[in-house]
Each structure stands twice: as C-alpha cells, then as structure tokens.
Amino acid sequence: MAQPAAETHEKTLADRILERTGVDVRECYQCGKCTAGCPMVQFMDLTPSQVMRLAQIGDAEAVETLLTSTTLWSCVGCLTCTQRCPKELDPAAVMDALREIAYEEGLVPADQRKVLRFHQAFLETVKHAGRMSEVPLTALYKTLSGDFFSDVTLAPAMLLRGKLPLIPKVISGRKEVGRIFEKCLHEQEGEEDQA
Amino acid sequence: MTTLGYYPGCSLHGTGRELDQSIRALAEVAGVDLVEIEDWNCCGATAAHSLNHDLAVALPYRTLALAEAQGLTEVVAPCAACFSRLKGTAVRLARDPALVEKMQRITERPYQGTVRVLNANEYVDRLLDEGLADRLTHRLAGLKVAPYYGCLLSRGEDIVPDDHEQPTAMERALTAAGCEVVPWNFATECCGGGFSMSKTEAVVDLSDAILSDAEDAEADAVVTSCPMCHSNLDMRQRTMNAAGLGPHEIPILYLSEVLGLAAGIEPERLGLDRHFVDAMRVTERLAEAPAAEA
Fold first, then answer.
1. Residue B219's domain spans which residues?
2. Which of A127, A138, A179, B293 is such that its CA lies 20 to 30 A from the CA of B277?
3. Which of B269, B214, B267, B260 is closest to B237 using CA atoms?
4. How far is the alpha carbon of A1 from chain B, nearest alpha carbon, in Å?
C-alpha cells in the first residue's frame, strides 16, 4: 500500500484541506451517509465518501484521481452531506477546497468546463459591476463556453415577463469591489506559495 | 414603526422579480419600513465559494459592513442563496476574530458584528407578529400546498433555525392564509440550484422528481421562498415536458405571494402574472375570511 505523503516534509492533501476549511478528513470513518443522501451522485465519477477516503490516502495517485474528478464540478453545494455527517466533518467544504485546488492547478476535466466557465462568467460580471445581471452573465458564459444555442427560446419568454432587465445594474462601489477581487486572488496565491 | 434592512440580491431584480414585489407589498400592509442597504453588492453565490474561499466571505462582508454603517441591525435577505452566504459569513465572523481581521484588511471596512440576517420565511413570520396576522382579509380556502424548503432554507447548523430534516417554518403562515399543507417527501430535496445553465440535465432530473412527488401528494401548488428553486421548478417545467417527463402543469408560488393574496393585495402587484406556469388560477380559491372571533 502506498505511503501517505505525511512521511515527507511536504504538506499532505489532508493538511491543505484542513488549512482551507478547518475540516480534518482523517477523522472520516467511512460510514457512507454522505453518499447515500447525495442528490448529484448519479452525475459523479467518485462518490462523496470515496472523495473523503482518497483525501485520507493522499498519495500521488489518489491526489491525481481526486483533482481530476468530475465530482468536484458536480457537487451542487446542497449541504445534505454536511448536515448528516455523524462526525460533523463538512464534506461540502472539502469539495469546495478540492475544487479550488484543482482550479488553481489547472486540472479541470474537459467535460466539466461548462461549470467552470459559468462560475468564471458570474465572477467577472460581479467584479466589473458589483452585481450580477442576467444579460451580461449569459452573454459572457456563452462566449466562454461556446454553448450558444441552449435556452435561446427562454429569452423572449423571460423578457415578456419582465425577468430579463436589459440595462445591467452597476453599483457606485464597483471599483472597491474590483479591488476586493484583486486582493482575494492575491491572498490565494500567497497561501499556495506557503503550501 | 418597525424598520428592517433589505438586501434584495441580484436575482430579485431579474429572474426573481415577483419575490421582490411580494416582499415589498407585504411590508406595506404590515406597516414595516423596509430600508434597502445602500450600494449593496452581489453575495458571490455558488461561484465565489467554488473558486475562492476568501472572496466568498469578503463579498458578503462588505454588504454586512454597509448595513451596520447605515445603522441597520436586522437585514432581510429573501433569496435563499444570499441568505445562506450572508448569515454563513456573519456566523463565521462571530467565531473567528482572525477572519474578521483578514476581511478588514481585504475590504478596508470595519464590522462589529451587529447585523442579524433573516430569510424570507423568518420575515413572513415576523410580519405576522408585527400585525399582518390581523390584516389577512382573505383565505385561499382549501388550496392544497406542498411547502418546499430546498437546501438553503433547511440546512446549515447555526444558519437555519428549524428542524433540518423536517422543517416547519412555512406552516404557520400557510395555515393563516387558509391553505391546507399536504404531507410529502421532497420538502428538503435539492432542485439542482445554480446548475440551471451549466448542468441543465441535472436540474431537469431533480426538479422533475420534486414536482412528481408534489403531484402524488395531490398538491394544487408548490410553495417556496427561494428564487433559484422557483426558476428551476417554474421556468423549467416546459423543458421537463419537452423531454417527455411529467407532463407537469403545477403553479410554483412564493410564500410571500400566498400571504399577499390573503392580505387582499392585487395579484398583479405581487407579480403573480409573471410566472411561466399559470399561477393566476389559484386566485379562484380566494374567499373573504370569516369575521374574526370576538
């Protein structure tokens, strides 16, 4: 059996998760309750309890399997696992941390990039305007993802119901929000350098 | 006059417009002054906590700091995702002084932690106490409803003050409006939330299961307080039907719309005419409330 990276002076994956979330995956005793309640499990290649187990093992093979997993991008953040974990371990926060690490290391699987593009489009919209508006978000998402044709028939119906404001909201503190984005990105890079 | 801070959040200017309309209309009837936080920003929603954990706290932090500076001690965040981000941030800040310090550095704004965040269900309950209960002139007599909490209005220790597996926060209000609450199994199941555009197939699958269970329980309508759940369950019914599921044709109402109807507010003012699945039909059940008992 592969030795955990804890034997070396490098930080283990479990340590990196602990730093980002306060959750120690080593405490998981694999009861499987997270997997049993997960509504998205049918769209995942690893179940939530397998994610916890691989994070415990933490050797090179386990880390690669985890960080390239479709599961990270299929977790909808519904918190069912977190609510039910008998060890109070917050698997949803572990998913967030692993997704963040996979994103930082450029390991997003090709078939999951639509989810990443949506998150990126959302954050770009907020960074520039301070708020999300449906029209710029959808336009940017479609440009980034190349997914031009889905839902085009919804737009007229939304317009008709006054649900698609054409003039995006922009706040007066948008530059301040832009600076907050820059600083948060900077913090993230700094934390990784120390890892 | 009671004053409550108001954080509409981005969805309530677009997709969730009728939630904004009905929340504001109810405040007027109850005689509560809703004061919008000046220059509020987006909470970051799922995107921020998916990609950057500092940003996921810093964005709600700025809004909480603005509310505090404006002297608002209670803030209503009707969107369930905004509520979860705002209150989640407030709870974490209260526990972790180092996080407060970090956020002060990132946002260059002070925050003492004086703001209490309320969700749409807590808000409606609060309004009932503020006098709305005495102003319900109508009843949706015998309208069978399935109260749908979804994820973010049922889960989260220290965030949602309710039973996490069998929440009841909507029941008092629904009963006061004359509705009959049906027992059903999917009250806290996930609709697919923020995957509406990027994993539509998952949203269609999960939302179809929720609607099917509500129909099996013979509900006339599903009641929610979350704009994401609302848009998945209402707007996506045509997508489900086109995929050969259902067919569904069940109105999805906001709790604030239901109470607004019971308070005698015109359906159009509540935004009931903006739904994808006809919701105006529930007004056929409206009847004047029997005179209050002496």
1. 138-288
2. A138
3. B214
4. 32
